Amino acid sequence: MALDKFQIAERIAQEVKDGYYVNLGIGIPTLVANFVREDISVEFQSENGILGMGPFPWEGEEDADLINAGKQTITALPGAAFFDSATSFSMIRGRHVDLTILGAMEVAQNGDIANWKIPGKMVKGMGGAMDLVASADRIIVAMTHTNKAGDSKLLSSCTLPLTGVGCVKKIVTDLAVLEVRDNAFHLLERAPGVTIQEIQEATQGTLVIPNEVPEMLKK
Amino acid sequence: MINKTVKNVAEACAGVESGMTLMLGGFGLCGIPECAIGELQRLGVNQLTCISNNAGVDDFGLGLLLQTRQIKTMIASYVGENAEFERQMLSGELEVQLIPQGTLAQRCQAAQSGIPAFYTPAGYGTEVGEGKESREFNGKMHLLEHAFEADFSFVKAWKGDAAGNLIFKGTARNFNPNMCGAAKITVAEVEELVPVGTLDPNQIHIPGIFVQRIFQGTDYQKRIEQRTVRSKQHGAG
């Protein structure tokens, strides 16, 4: 069965290593913080100006001066730091942030990503996504394998305006974990109960299937 | 000590004219210069070019100046959450330049610092890079981006003094420090204007040299865009 958004977040959390500074995008990526192992030290950066971001506040303790990049009220953990936007992007462009997790509308087999604009329909802007994908060494995309119309989001080339070129290395979807290299999607893991044929049918781009494809989230 | 205090928001906004380019601090509705925006609306200046990360919501922040059609061009990184903005943009009434957030911050910072232009990898190979000079450094392509040129910069701080020194609070800091001294005139509004000598010089985020006018703001709403809380039942946020 396809994973739900919490299970996608749980799988991505396995990619978060001890000592990492991590930037989480809006949506599924935000959920990753809930599944990071408690025995490792990780700090979450939000590009609007906080390192050491904590969980949402208890009711009644919301502070208008303390939000994340999704404009949600948050808390600051002990050891947190606030900073201005230019400093925030010095952390990002300067590659001090170790891992970026973000959503996407399309990813191409060469690592291109599109997630900021649907011409004539939706124009919200790129926010910090272009800076993040242009700079990060480790980028993981969290998304559903197909869009609401059932069309594949893993393509031979993107059809929407690009956010970044050749930058995505890993994708976790509701169906599979894939590595992007050598101009192809390499299947690493599949969702429990999901067949390789289902993944193949939901992938428009070139899919490389190894002999063994273990299931995700095996305890 | 050079005294930067002005009596009120009206005096702080003196000299703002139609057709000018303005920088406005804030991220979403967090740390926006609420008083200055209200005064710009009252003044009725129009054909403005506004540089700000976001465009407010329909009935608050820069959304107020959109309602009254005072903005001709909006330069921002993210403009969701504003239906009137979207309507004006799709109908062509409003000119919009969307630019990467880090580039926006650095173009402010560059203006503050007297750096005319800089290279950044953000946006290379995308629409953002169209028509821009590009150059390879260390095997990677970069775009040449220019410092902003603005007439006024409106920022909001938590505390300040007559010398123009500023301290920001939490994530309300965001673009505000980068916009100080990045326009011909920087106007700072503060929640608390304290007597000179009470701010610890070690703690000052922006030295007064970057600020031309400072005043104590009034009636701050400090609206929350996405009130998100932890459920007592489930624990985790």
Can you summarize this structure?
Chain A is an alpha/beta fold and 219 residues long. Helices cover 16% and strands 26% of the residues of chain A. In chain A, the strands form three sheets. In chain A, strands 4-3-2-1-5-10-12-13-14-15 form a ten-stranded mixed β-sheet. A three-stranded mixed β-sheet of chain A has the order 7-6-11, with no helix packed on it. A two-stranded antiparallel ribbon of chain A has the order 8-9.
Helix content of chain B: 10-25%
Low-confidence stretches of chain A: none
Sketch the major β-sheet of chain A.
10 strands, mixed
Largest sheet of chain B: 8 strands, mixed
Which structural class is indicated by helix and strand composition of chain B?
alpha/beta
Instruction: Give the chain pair forming the largest contact, with residue counts.
Output: A-B, 57 and 60 residues
Q: What is the SS-derived class of chain A?
A: alpha/beta
Distance between the termini of chain B: 48 Å
Number of helices of chain B: 6
Strand order of the largest sheet of chain A: 4-3-2-1-5-10-12-13-14-15
Secondary structure tally: strands of chain B: 11
Tell me the β content of chain A: 25-35%
Summarize the helix and strand pattern of chain A as letters: HEHEEEHEEEEEHEEEEEHE
Helix content percent band of chain A: 10-25%
- The 3D shape of chain A can be described as globular
- Rounded mean pLDDT of chain A is 95
- Low-pLDDT stretches of chain B are none
Order of secondary-structure elements of chain B = HEHEHEHEHEEEEEHEE
Instruction: Give the oligomeric state of the chains in this entry, treating copies of one chain as homo and distinct chains as hetero.
Output: heterodimer
The rounded distance between the terminal residues' Cα atoms of chain A is 17 Å
Shape call of chain B: globular
What does this structure look like?
The complex is a heterodimer of chains A (219) and B (237). Chain A is of the alpha/beta class. Helices cover 16% and strands 26% of the residues of chain A. In chain A, the strands form three sheets. Chain A has a ten-stranded mixed β-sheet. Chain A has a three-stranded mixed β-sheet with strand order 7-6-11, with no helix packed on it. Chain A starts with a helix and ends in an 11-residue tail after the last strand. By secondary structure, chain B is α/β, with parallel strands linked by helices. Chain B is 19% helix and 27% strand. Chain B has helices at 9-12, 34-43, 63-67, 83-90, 101-113, 176-179, and strands at 21-24, 48-51, 71-76, 95-98, 117-120, 134-137, 140-146, 150-161, 166-167, 183-194, 213-216. In chain B, the strands form two sheets. In chain B, strands 1, 2, 3, 4, 8, 9, 10 and 11 form an eight-stranded mixed β-sheet that branches. In chain B, strands 5-7-6 form a three-stranded antiparallel β-sheet. In chain B, strand 6 and strand 7 (140-146) form a beta hairpin. The relative contact order of chain B is 0.19. The model of chain B has no long low-confidence stretch (mean pLDDT 95). The interface between A and B is large, with 57 and 60 residues.
